[in-house]
Amino acid sequence: MNGASTAKAQGFRRFWNNDNTVGHVFAAPFIFGFVCFSLIPICMSFYYSFTDYSLGTKSAELIGFKNFIELFQDEVFGKSILKTLQYVVVSVPLKLIFALLVAFILTRKSRMVTLYRSLYYVPSLVGGSIAVALVWKQLFARKGLFNSVLVNMGLNKINWFGDQNLAIYPLILMAVWQFGSSMIIFAAGLKEIPSTYYEAAEIDGASGIQKFFKITLPCLSPIILYNLVMQTISAFMTFTQAFVITGGGPNNGTLLYALNVYNQAFKYNKMGYACAMSWVMLMIMSIITLIIFRTSRFWVFSESET
Amino acid sequence: MKKRTVSIVMAAAMTAGLLAGHVMPVMAEEQINLRMAWWGSQDRHDKTVAAIELYEELNPNVHIEYEFYSFDDYFTKLKTLVASDEVWDIFQLGGNFPMYLDKIYPLDEFIESGVVDVSKISEANLKTTQETDGTQLGLTNGINTYGIAYDPAMFEEAGAALPTENWTWDDYKAAADKITEELGIFGSSTFLSSDFIAGCSTYIGQQGDLGQYGFFNLDLTGMGFDDPQMLAPFIQMRADMINSGSYPDAGASAEVTNIENDFLVTGEAAMTWVAVNQFPTIYNVCKDMGRTLALATVPRVTADGNSGAMIQSSQMLCVSQDSENKEAAAAFISWFENDIDCNNILQAERGIPANEDVRAALAATATEGQQIMYDYVDMVSGFKVPDEINVLSPSGQDEVQDNYLNYIQQVVAGEITAEEAAEKTYADAAAIFE
Asked: How close is the nearest chain B Cα to the Cα of A235, in Å?
């Protein structure tokens, strides 16, 4: 062994054990996945949104802003935006309220709390799966469980998926039912609130409701903001429920945006048009998220400011 | 130590494998892998898989990897494969093949070299899967036409008039309404997306003189009729039926995913639209439940008008341009369409076989349901049809079809009138050719 090769070996070892190298090696699988399956497709979809690309024929000619102009003349597109907004505006607050309520109940010190918390998380685990969507389809079917319960109570059957104004509510209910991940985050946030606040309030004679609105909610508001943003974004991207349960019908009453994009891309063979739609969706979601952030300073309480 | 043992064992195994290759000449023959896919019902999946296994047994050097899907999923998958130049070696296509012409490897050279045998397939049947210039794109899986499957017992119980050979859409609606009124079930089950074939392709062809109108023109370059209002009466009828409960609304229709859980089969409807190759399957299912189904013609606009009947290729098997073993794929297709043992397994589930010998062999052992199908196709073949009809669909039809079904929903909801729905459908369809 001569000196040079030892030095080389040492240099290599030093390089290999360097924090930066280790970091990059561990991050490599993610970086690879992100570049191949997110970054490149994102760039491609941006390019395709200005073309008439279609999967079947493989031709892609640049057509400028034609896709975007067509979008705003498309009746179905307009309806799918309205229905998606309805879905988001109704489902997200309901889901958060429900998640907070359950999280609040489950932070009390009693036995079995961990078990219940895990149990309530289960719907979120199986959440977006086809299987649950199929179960939902059966539950709300004409002869499904909900209708037999209604009939047994002496009420009239409800034609859930046959009525274009009603059909979206089972889907909303399914979203609300999957409150688990928000609940876990809320539960963690609730534990962070110092118990001294509550003790002080109790000495001053505050009621339970007062404590909730004056202490719990303000202290939790940063967490609420986080959950609100995350759930809004994921609600905009809802696909499985609409695809499996209703297929978008009746009269496009449940044609959520992502389903419309899918139909255009894979069913009607208008990939370029679908890409344009995706970018419009990105813009809509960004604007709404921005609005939420901008308004947050009026309602999010930060302890450092006081 | 352990590692070394493993490598010794592996080396031994490899040597043994090589030796075995020398001993058995069959093994030395080049191993061919083919990929194949189709869409259909569970019944078709089971039969096709059994046929493939028989082929592998007869040809040990061929291994076929198969995939099967429902209709919609099949085409979604196909489109992604087209985009990545990896279309299955052997694939199934229906009347929408014009979209995939680039991916079809014509069979002409294999017919010439004798790999594909068409000696027992009539010229007319070969023509169903040819391009207008005579290029043989594939071999048809079977001959097919549409019909209305119904349960005569339900008609009689409700006191509705039974379908006749030239019954009209008015008769159809009257019977359906009567059945709904009397029995509280759907008079007619959902036609699903075939309601487009019923209300557009067929309904337009039934009007005017024989061959005067078609939904699209013969060479698929434009519309085949001028007055959008020709569509309106059917749309109005459909909306009325949904409103009166004699035809399933969108929610109920979504519960039907394939012919095997159609409302006719589950006993919640008295009739349904079928491609006749589907009839034996549902006939057998209902027979097991003690019900006997029958097959009626598609209703007409007027009793003495055109039948609108279309005898066509149900689907065909094609060789893909992306295939590395085109000849082996073509040989399989030839066997699949011509071999009697194979078709005894398949049982004409894809339609009535084009090969005369196969048809004769199957007809000799036909089940009751199949016999009804054969008789029905014979009867429809006797109807007057135009010299040339177009049973193909241009790319872009899917969206027109979905919009059409949606306009019917809008008429049901009272948002637009049937006349407006007709105008919109016409405009959508005409836009394909712009």
From this structure: 23
